Protein backbone atom coordinates (compact mmCIF):
# COMPACT_ATOMS: atom_id res chain seq x y z
CA UNK A 1 0.00 0.00 0.00
CA UNK A 2 1.42 3.38 -0.94
CA UNK A 3 1.91 6.03 1.72
CA UNK A 4 -0.60 8.38 0.08
CA UNK A 5 -3.20 5.61 -0.02
CA UNK A 6 -2.59 4.91 3.67
CA UNK A 7 -3.21 8.53 4.55
CA UNK A 8 -6.43 8.54 2.58
CA UNK A 9 -7.60 5.35 4.31
CA UNK A 10 -6.69 6.75 7.75
CA UNK A 11 -8.41 10.06 7.01
CA UNK A 12 -11.51 8.17 5.86
CA UNK A 13 -11.56 6.16 9.07
CA UNK A 14 -11.21 9.31 11.18
CA UNK A 15 -14.01 10.99 9.24
CA UNK A 16 -16.23 7.97 9.91
CA UNK A 17 -15.70 8.36 13.65
CA UNK A 18 -12.93 5.80 14.04
CA UNK A 19 -10.86 6.34 17.16
CA UNK A 20 -7.51 4.78 17.95
CA UNK A 21 -7.26 2.40 20.87
CA UNK A 22 -6.00 4.09 24.05
CA UNK A 23 -2.71 2.16 24.00
CA UNK A 24 -1.98 3.38 20.45
CA UNK A 25 -2.71 6.98 21.41
CA UNK A 26 -0.43 6.62 24.47
CA UNK A 27 2.36 5.16 22.34
CA UNK A 28 2.08 8.10 19.93
CA UNK A 29 2.28 10.53 22.87
CA UNK A 30 5.42 8.83 24.22
CA UNK A 31 7.04 8.93 20.79
CA UNK A 32 6.27 12.66 20.46
CA UNK A 33 7.90 13.33 23.85
CA UNK A 34 11.00 11.35 22.93
CA UNK A 35 11.25 13.13 19.58
CA UNK A 36 10.92 16.55 21.23
CA UNK A 37 13.84 15.73 23.53
CA UNK A 38 15.89 14.35 20.64
CA UNK A 39 15.39 17.52 18.61
CA UNK A 40 16.24 19.78 21.56
CA UNK A 41 19.49 17.92 22.27
CA UNK A 42 20.48 17.94 18.59
CA UNK A 43 19.63 21.63 18.15
CA UNK A 44 21.60 22.73 21.22
CA UNK A 45 24.57 20.51 20.35
CA UNK A 46 24.76 21.91 16.81
CA UNK A 47 24.24 25.45 18.14
CA UNK A 48 27.39 24.93 20.22
CA UNK A 49 29.22 23.42 17.23
CA UNK A 50 29.81 20.12 19.02
CA UNK A 51 30.00 16.66 17.51
CA UNK A 52 28.21 13.79 19.21
CA UNK A 53 31.60 12.54 20.41
CA UNK A 54 32.49 15.91 21.92
CA UNK A 55 29.14 16.12 23.71
CA UNK A 56 29.56 12.55 24.94
CA UNK A 57 32.97 13.39 26.37
CA UNK A 58 31.62 16.49 28.12
CA UNK A 59 28.72 14.50 29.61
CA UNK A 60 30.71 11.40 30.54
CA UNK A 61 28.72 9.27 28.11
CA UNK A 62 29.47 7.37 24.94
CA UNK A 63 28.89 8.70 21.43
CA UNK A 64 26.51 5.78 20.90
CA UNK A 65 24.38 6.93 23.86
CA UNK A 66 24.17 10.46 22.44
CA UNK A 67 23.20 8.98 19.07
CA UNK A 68 20.43 6.92 20.68
CA UNK A 69 19.10 9.99 22.51
CA UNK A 70 19.14 12.12 19.35
CA UNK A 71 17.55 9.28 17.41
CA UNK A 72 14.68 8.89 19.92
CA UNK A 73 15.82 5.33 20.54
CA UNK A 74 16.08 5.73 24.30
CA UNK A 75 14.47 7.73 27.07
CA UNK A 76 17.14 9.09 29.43
CA UNK A 77 16.83 9.07 33.19
CA UNK A 78 16.68 12.29 35.18
CA UNK A 79 20.34 12.04 36.27
CA UNK A 80 21.36 11.59 32.62
CA UNK A 81 19.25 14.61 31.61
CA UNK A 82 21.07 16.64 34.28
CA UNK A 83 24.43 15.54 32.81
CA UNK A 84 23.26 16.53 29.32
CA UNK A 85 22.08 19.95 30.46
CA UNK A 86 25.39 20.59 32.21
CA UNK A 87 27.38 19.39 29.19
CA UNK A 88 25.29 21.63 26.93
CA UNK A 89 25.85 24.60 29.29
CA UNK A 90 22.12 25.13 29.54
CA UNK A 91 19.01 24.71 31.61
CA UNK A 92 16.64 21.99 30.43
CA UNK A 93 13.00 23.10 30.20
CA UNK A 94 10.26 20.52 29.71
CA UNK A 95 6.58 21.41 29.42
CA UNK A 96 4.15 18.50 29.28
CA UNK A 97 0.60 19.57 28.48
CA UNK A 98 -2.30 17.66 26.96
CA UNK A 99 -1.25 16.98 23.40
CA UNK A 100 1.66 19.41 23.55
CA UNK A 101 5.21 18.64 24.61
CA UNK A 102 7.89 21.33 24.53
CA UNK A 103 11.52 20.61 25.33
CA UNK A 104 14.10 23.39 25.15
CA UNK A 105 17.54 24.19 26.41
CA UNK A 106 18.10 27.74 27.62
CA UNK A 107 21.75 28.72 27.53
CA UNK A 108 23.15 29.77 30.89
CA UNK A 109 23.21 33.53 31.14
CA UNK A 110 19.95 33.95 29.19
CA UNK A 111 16.61 34.79 30.74
CA UNK A 112 14.36 31.75 31.03
CA UNK A 113 11.32 33.82 29.98
Automatic annotation (TrEMBL):
GO terms for molecular function: DNA binding. Gene3D superfamilies: lambda repressor-like DNA-binding domains. It holds the Pfam family HTH_3. SMART domains: HTH_XRE. Residues 41-95 form the HTH cro/C1-type domain. InterPro entries: Cro/C1-type_HTH (IPR001387), Lambda_DNA-bd_dom_sf (IPR010982). This is Helix-turn-helix domain-containing protein.
Amino acid sequence: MSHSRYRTLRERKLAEGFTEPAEVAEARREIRMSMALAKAVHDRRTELGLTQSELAERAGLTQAKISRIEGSDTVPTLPLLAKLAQALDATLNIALDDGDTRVTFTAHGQDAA
